[in-house]
Write a structure and sequence with these properties.
Keywords: Leucine-rich repeat, Repeat. By secondary structure, this protein is mostly beta strands. Helices cover 0% and strands 17% of the residues. A 10-stranded parallel β-sheet has the order 1-2-3-5-7-8-9-11-13-15, with no helix packed on it.
């Protein structure tokens, strides 16, 4: 345990590294004397619960690292006091639930990493307005399906990773706002069906990795309008039929 007033004298601190320790919780007043803090690293500890109010004193925080802990749930309001946060690292925890709206106040968030958790959905989590997110990593979860509005409004995302999940299909509404995406990875899932024109809005896409799925059929409209695509990986699928001219628009 770190006593609440332990950091009070560090008035001009901008970066704090407390990685690879045995910290179990973050008390509400622990960071009250660190209002200039821009980067906080708490990865590799024993934190299993995030209490609303833990970050209320560090409004200038831009980078928060909480990976490799034991966090099971993200409550709405935990990150509300962090309007300037750009990077949020929550990978390799035990997260099963993220309450709706949990990231809505992070309107400057550019990078979020949630890989290596136990999520099975991402519904109503990311804020659609304003679109600031540039990368999202959701590898190695248990996501079986993504709601049509799961990624709504994310028009500035340039890289997204959904590898090693349980997705079985992709529909054209899911990625409709991915207007600036350049790299999309959806490997090692169970995708058997890709709806026509699913990737149609991705006119900036240069890399698409769909390897290690269960795709059996490629239609002439599967990769419609991907004129900038440089790398397409369809290895280790179950493709039996490819319609004529399926790759003409690439």
């Amino acid at each position: 345990k770190i006593e609440e007033d332990a950091l009070d004298s560090l008035k001009d601190l901008t970066q704090l590294y407390l990685t690879e320790n045995f910290i179990e919780n973050i008390s509400q007043n622990l960071l009250s004397g660190s209002q200039t803090l821009s980067s906080l690293s708490l990865n590799g500890n024993w934190i299993d619960d995030l209490v609303p109010g833990s970050f209320v004193q560090v409004k200038e925080l831009k980078e928060l690292r909480l990976q490799n802990n034991r966090i099971k749930k993200i409550e709405k309001g935990v990150f509300q006091p962090l309007p300037n946060l750009r990077e949020l690292h929550l990978q390799n925890n035990l997260i099963k639930e993220i309450e709706p709206g949990s990231f809505y106040t992070l309107q400057k968030l550019q990078h979020i990493n949630l890989q290596g958790n136990s999520l099975n959905t991402l519904e109503d989590v990311l804020s659609p307005e304003p679109p600031s997110l540039q990368s999202i990593q959701l590898d190695s979860n248990r996501i079986t399906a993504l709601h049509d509005d799961s990624l709504r409004g994310q028009s500035r995302v340039r890289m997204a990773r959904f590898n090693h999940n349980l997705l079985s299909k992709l529909n054209k509404e899911l990625f409709r706002d991915f207007l600036m995406i350049q790299r999309l990875y959806i490997t090692n899932n169970a995708i058997a069906h890709i709806e026509d024109k699913t990737f149609q809005q991705m006119t900036a896409l240069v890399l698409l990795d769909l390897s290690s799925n269960k795709v059996t059929y490629i239609s002439v409209r599967t990769f419609h309008e991907l004129q900038k695509l440089e790398e397409l990986n369809l290895s280790d699928n179950r493709i039996k039929h490819v319609e004529p001219s399926s790759f003409n628009s690439l």
